[in-house]
Amino acid sequence: MIFLLAANLGLVAAQTRQPARRSAPVRNRAIANIVREIDARNVEATIRKLVSFGTRNTLSEQNDPKRGIGAARDWLYAEFLKAAEASNGRMTVEKQSYEQAKAPRVPEPTIITNVVATLKGSQPEATDRIYVVSGHYDSMCNSPTDAKCDAPGANDDASGTAAVLEMARVMAKYEFDATIVFMAVAGEEQSLLGSTHFAEQAKQKSWNVDAMFTNDIAGNTLGGNGVRDRNHLRVFSEGVPSNETAAEATTRRSVGGENDSASRQLARFIKEIGDAFVPQMKVMMIYRRDRYGRGGDHIPFLERGYPAVRFTEVNEDFRHQHQNVRVENGVQFGDLPEFVDFAYVANVARVNAASLAALAWAPSRPKGVTIVAQRLSNDTELRWDANKEPDLAGYEIVWRDTTAPVWTDAKPVGNVTSFTMKGMSKDNYFFGLRSVDKDGNKSPVTYPRPQARNQ
Ligand SMILES: [Zn+2]
Questions:
Q1: 374 vs 371: CA distance, rounded Å
Q2: Helices 2-16 & 26-37, crossing angle to 10 degrees?
Q3: Are 134 and 215 in contact (CB under 8 A)?
Q4: How many A from CA of 295 to the centre of ligand 1?
Q5: I want to staple 219 with a disulfide (CB 3.0 to 4.6 A). Which of 12, 103, 159, 210 is the partner?
Q6: How far is ligand 1, taken at its centre, from the CA of residue 188, in Å?
Q7: CA atoms of 302 and 304, how far apart (whole Å)
Q8: Ligand 1 centroid distance, CA of 318 (Å)
Q9: pLDDT of amino acid 14
Q10: What digits encode the pLDDT tens for the residues 256-290?
């Protein structure tokens, strides 16, 4: 908070030469309010309710009102509808269903349903910019195709689903510039089916999904390694984009950039916002797409060119994931609610919500950002397209040493579409550009691609 505040005041002072004011930007105060309103008791109630459906296996009963994935789907739908009541009609809720054909973990054609709550952005220039946050509400025991066993799925992934529902409840009454989609998907354990369906629809309809967060296995704070950690949260981001083209790979081999995908910039953004607004939870950036041998609902988005990250606890306990509920040699197996730290899940939701709010209030990432490359010079010239938001204040050039993990320096350059950093060679630093609005909200950084000077 203090860091952001100082940065914002610094920008105001640099642009207007007025003495720095002491008050925080109004919208940053709103982010603090959102963080405060997220309640661990709601998170706990949601997780216990989802567990009460016995199993939420994607192949389980769809029409039983008490047991199976259908009951969980209908309960979630009703809860998102309740959340939407506070939105003055800006939040709409739908069941997005399709029939999944036979597949390795789907023995017969099965209806897969995502529950999708869309909070429409209020700024005409930003309303088509979409941020998606999801958890998966399906669960499994030992076998992904066992639809009968108890599969409480308290941590995997009632934790992520409860975080998303709580965000929807709190954020529905706030008005954002851009659109936020709160989503509970199914078929994750069947190979990311629900999220793949959504991501493919988004691609087919050319939706501008500017970032996607998945929350999955985000509530266990006592690892199988015996380590108790309530204060760290992993954010996985890929370095080399899953959809990188051959031409982009050639550029990367030549001048680097393997640490500067849009998803990596998103992770840096989340770390900055999360650490500022939720100081009790430190974001631990993991520079890889996901854990060894594991996957998540961010991957279908990455494969279609959408920036995406995964939120997960730091120390997992595999005795409580994908296990039949049983006691063996005195050890309790199974994904039961007694192994979920509800206060921790609430903090995960807070990091998500603060980051989403900051994204949805900020201008879009600068587009068409290039670094003039076909000229030998010890200066660095950046060019970009003008943003279209009416509340845009200008841009900041950021930079870091080539070996640094995060952006270390920033320079406000005003409302222009090119700037030359005198005496700073593009060969010696990584540069990036972000946009800033009049309230001090900043976009994630865009990493420039090289371009010839006369293009
Ligand atoms: Zn999962």
A1: 9
A2: 170
A3: yes
A4: 8
A5: 159
A6: 7
A7: 5
A8: 12
A9: 38
A10: 999 999 999 999 999 999 999 999 999 999 999 99
Q: How far is the CA of 340 from the centre of ligand 1 (A)?
A: 14
Q: What is the distance in A from the centroid of ligand 1 to the CA of 353? A: 20
Closest listed residue to residue 372, CA positions, set 287, 448, 319? 448
- Cα(153) to ligand 1 centroid in Å equals 9
CA 136 – ligand 1 centroid, Å? 7
- d(CA 181, ligand 1 centre) in Å: 19
> Is residue 410 classed as helix, strand or coil in its secondary structure?
strand
Interatomic CA distance for residues 176 and 169, integer angstroms: 14
pLDDT, position 375: 77
How wide is the angle at C-alpha 307 spanned by C-alphas 306 and 311, nearest 5°?
A: 125
Q: Give the number of other Cβ atoms within 10 Å of residue 383's Cβ.
A: 19
Q: How far is the CA of 245 from the centre of ligand 1 (A)?
A: 30
Q: In angstroms, what is the span from residue 87 Cα to ligand 1's centroid?
A: 30
- For ligand 1, the distance from its centroid to the CA atom of residue 135, given in whole angstroms, is 8
Residues surrounding ion ligand 1 at CB below 5 Å: 156-157, 216
92-149 confidence digits (pLDDT tens): 999 999 999 999 999 999 999 999 999 999 999 999 999 999 999 999 999 999 999 9
Mode of pairing for the β-strands spanning 232-236 and 282-286 = parallel
**Structure confidence at residue 9 (pLDDT):** 40
Task: State the distance from the centre of ligand 1 to the C-alpha of 290, rounded, in angstroms.
Answer: 12
pTM above 0.85, yes or no: yes
In tens, the pLDDT along 288-346 reads: 999 999 999 999 999 999 999 999 999 999 999 999 999 999 999 999 999 999 999 99
Distance 48 CA to ligand 1 centre (A): 17
For the chain, the C-alpha Rg in angstroms (whole number) is 22
Q: How do residues 190-230 score in pLDDT, each as one tens digit?
A: 999 999 999 999 999 999 999 999 999 999 999 999 999 99
Position 235, amino acid = V
